Amino acid sequence: MIENKLKRLLKSDGTAIGTMICDTRTPAIARALCVAGFDFFILDTEHGSYSLETVSDMMQMARLEGITPIVRVPDFSYPFIARTLDAGAMGVMVPRVKTRAQVEQIVRAVKYPPMGERGMMNARTNTDYRGMTIGEYGAQANQETMVIVQIETREAVEDIDAILAVPGVDAALMGPADLSVSLGVMDTGHAKVTEYIQRVADAAKRRGLPSGTHVGDLGTLKVWRDRGMRLLMYNYDFGLMMDAATAAIKELRA
Questions:
Q1: Which domain covers residue 159, as residue numbers?
Q2: What average pLDDT does range 134-161 have in this prediction?
Q3: Section 240-254 average pLDDT
Q4: How far apart are the two ends of the chain, measured CA to CA in Å?
Q5: pLDDT tens column, 16-26
Q6: Which of 20, 87, 198, 206 has a CA between 20 and 30 Å from the CA of residue 172?
């Protein structure tokens, strides 16, 4: 089983830069992002319309290229998590997390015994088709597979210390848009949103865990980087393309 470079980078106090893939369906996007210098990407199956076959193709290309592939699953149900990991994801990001009990359920779905209850499958994409005993694979998978909780509700922020205390959680990533909705302000730049994001960043730091956020504005992302966030997600696939295309057209028509 290959090493999870994202997990190693964060554990060594490094800063990781990634993006979200929402619409692109060709596995070549993993290669392009790797060449561009991204450390990881998150494939969005919460809002995206990806089939499991497409997920598997994307994961295989990413693993070959050396960029860490994470999948945002639709929710914390066992089938979504287990099948995604069997398809080759090196971790999951779970949206709309609200309670410690939910996080405990997520960890049980991600990890093999004795840490969890994931069903064993040790001979396909998730092992790169390399022969491994059940014991070898279970131990390595528990070590390498990531659990990222997406914090995007008032309830989650107000229970953040209990959530991050669950063994097996590797990082917390903010969802500013949904958080602003949950707080009733409908504005990601609102002072209340900033306050709640800072509460999560502070809680993660106290526990020695990385925190991060996902935004489309580089200035905002730099602010949170300077405040100690180390899991930085910038923009998404078509956002990156549209920004570059718009800038080029503006320049050429000037």
A1: 5-252
A2: 96
A3: 97
A4: 52
A5: 999 999 999 99
A6: 87
Peptide bond into 114 cis (omega under 30): yes
What Rg value do the Cα atoms of the chain yield, rounded?
Answer: 18
- Identified catalytic residue from 8, 11, 47, 206: 47
For position 158, which CATH number holds? 3.20.20.60
Using CA atoms of 95, 225, 85, 176 in order, give the dihedral in degrees to the nearest 10. Answer: 10
For 214, phi and psi rounded to 5 degrees?
-125, 110
Question: Long-range pairs for 178-185 at CB < 8 Å and ≥24 separation?
Answer: 178/95, 178/96, 178/152, 178/153, 179/151, 179/152, 179/153, 179/154, 182/152, 182/153, 182/154, 182/155, 183/154
Amino acid identity, residue 213?
T
**Is 47 a known active-site residue?**
yes
The domain tally of the chain equals: 1
Query: What average pLDDT does this structure show over 184-204?
Result: 97
